[in-house]
Amino acid sequence: MRIWFNRGYSLAPISAAIMAAEPSIEVYASIGQGLPARPGPIETWVEPEGSTAAYLDWVKNQISCYGIDIFVPTRHRTLIATADLPCKVALPASPPTLALLEDKYSFAEATSVLDCHLPTQLIAGSDALERAITDYAGQVPPCIKPRNGVNGEGFWILTKDGAMRHLRNPDARRIRGDLYISALREQEHEGASHDLVLMEYLPGPEVSFDILCDDGQLLKYAARTKLSNGDQTVQSAHPLERDVASLVAMFGLSGVVNAQFRRHADGSWKILEINARPAGGSVYSESVGCGILADWARLLAGMVTPDNIGQNAVDTHIRFASSIEQVLI
Asked: Domains in the chain, ordered, with CATH?
């Protein structure tokens, strides 16, 4: 059985984890031009640049030449969903749902009926932002991010700190509100700016759920709580399980996806986002026996059904160590 992942995150360790758990499955991956091909998949292909039609022709050729049985796309999902390909295509949701999940404002609106909803404002320019942040005077500072984006790109906490704070420690992602507004106005003068979303900054901690699901049914999960010292706890049972199940059902999700929650100052938990793909950290859950990725591959391959997915009890603490991969002289 051969599975192909295209342009996902952390493909190499995810591929290695699947094949280590299920040797009868071969995993292939493809990456963008100029990106490193790391050990893990059977082969890693470099994807061509060009038109979507040319890309689709290349996809069909790779599937035929390598005998791919299951294609799991992250790139060009809408294109691939409607294409006639010579293998099974596994998508985590319908194209309209995938578009909604990638839109932070639309996602917040869709989850407004849930207890874990995080109120979110749509910001369409510097004037709107200046008006909106006045509502946070004297309260917990707001945070802002692009309406669309991944991996925390463009995230900032808007504060009343000193003017140089964001330059002295950019990794803290804190910037004085008036400086952000000034930069946004400058961007608007230079050209069109993109929509932003504004919300209350939550102190945390943050919990990242690696979720295995099928057609809106939660099958199993691993909850990774990110601790202040960089460690993580991994649990196969968590108080937010009912909320996770509600989200999976609401969006009709399948495969392995990731949901991120963060704790409010009042002790409640709020949903930040759902990433319709495996998180890079899912390999940490796999390393302590959760079996999310392995059972996903078995489910795709027809080796198991949703009714007989194994449940592994896990409640552990993991710590990370740095190492040098290579020394160049």
From this structure: 2-91 (3.40.50.20), 98-102+203-318 (3.30.470.20), 120-200 (3.30.1490)
